[in-house]
Amino acid sequence: MGTSDLIARFIMDAIDHTGGIAELQRSNLAERFSCVPSQINYVISTRFSPEHGYLVESRRGGGGYIRITRVQAGPDMLIMHTVNSIGDSLDLRTAAAFVSNLLGSDAVDGKTAALIMTAIGDNSLRPISPEHRDIVRASIFKQLLVSILAE
Predict the structure, then answer these.
(1) What is the pLDDT of residues 103-118, one digit of tens each?
(2) Where are the domain boundaries for CATH 3.30.56.130 in the chain?
(3) CATH class held by domain 75-150
(4) Does the domain at residues 3-70 carry the CATH identifier 2.40.37.10?
(5) Which of 40, 72, 78, 142 stands the most exposed, by the fewest C-beta atoms within 10 Å?
(6) 135 pLDDT band (50/70/90 cuts)?
(7) How many other C-beta atoms are found inside a 10 Å radius of the C-beta of residue 38?
(8) End-to-end alpha-carbon separation of the chain, Å?
């Protein structure tokens, strides 16, 4: 198991142990795992991001911390959190992470997840120029999620 996996597991255990919120110090984690603080940043940004169902707050400085909160909400709240996290542009990899999180949290079922991925996939967006696809993908994804909420 790589260092990034060990760090992610440690953070996940801390979140689970403290009821969904972990407050950590980047320098302490870097020292514990004998790595540079930027590796801690990498793990947090790739594994504990909004598309994975987490909120991350960071305060720098001597008493600085990183607070990671697992978003624990019902399906409608999670869908709204996702809509609000998307922004104006969305690449396919990030969209897939959002859909995976929604599926894993039972906010959408497997058939709905597959339909969303088909609608926002590169094959569906092929007529759109590559430099505009991520903008259109974000718009379509948001509209699909809002329509799910309206059901």
Answers:
(1) 888 899 999 999 999 9
(2) 3-70
(3) mainly alpha
(4) no
(5) 72
(6) very high
(7) 10
(8) 43
Tokens 């972990």 — which residue?
22
Q: Looking at the predicted structure, is the pLDDT value of residue 71 above 80? A: no
Average pLDDT, the chain: 89
Phi, psi (degrees; rounded to nearest 5) at 71: -75, 110
3-state class (DSSP) for residue 67: strand
Is the separation of the CB atoms in 148 and 79 below 8 Å? yes
Could you identify the residue written with the tokens 């709240």? 77
Write the secondary structure of 11-41 as one string of H (helix), E (strand) and C (coil).
Answer: HHHHHHHCCCEEEECHHHHHHHCCCCHHHHH
Residue 103, both tokens: 């599926």
Could you report the per-residue pLDDT of 24-69, keeping only the tens digit for each?
Answer: 888 888 899 999 888 988 899 888 887 777 888 887 766 668 899 8
The pTM assigned to this predicted structure is: 0.63
Tokens at 51, concatenated: 């598309």
Domain with CATH 1.10.1200 in the chain: 75-150
Q: How many residues does the chain have?
A: 151
The H or E element that residue 58 is part of is strand 54-59
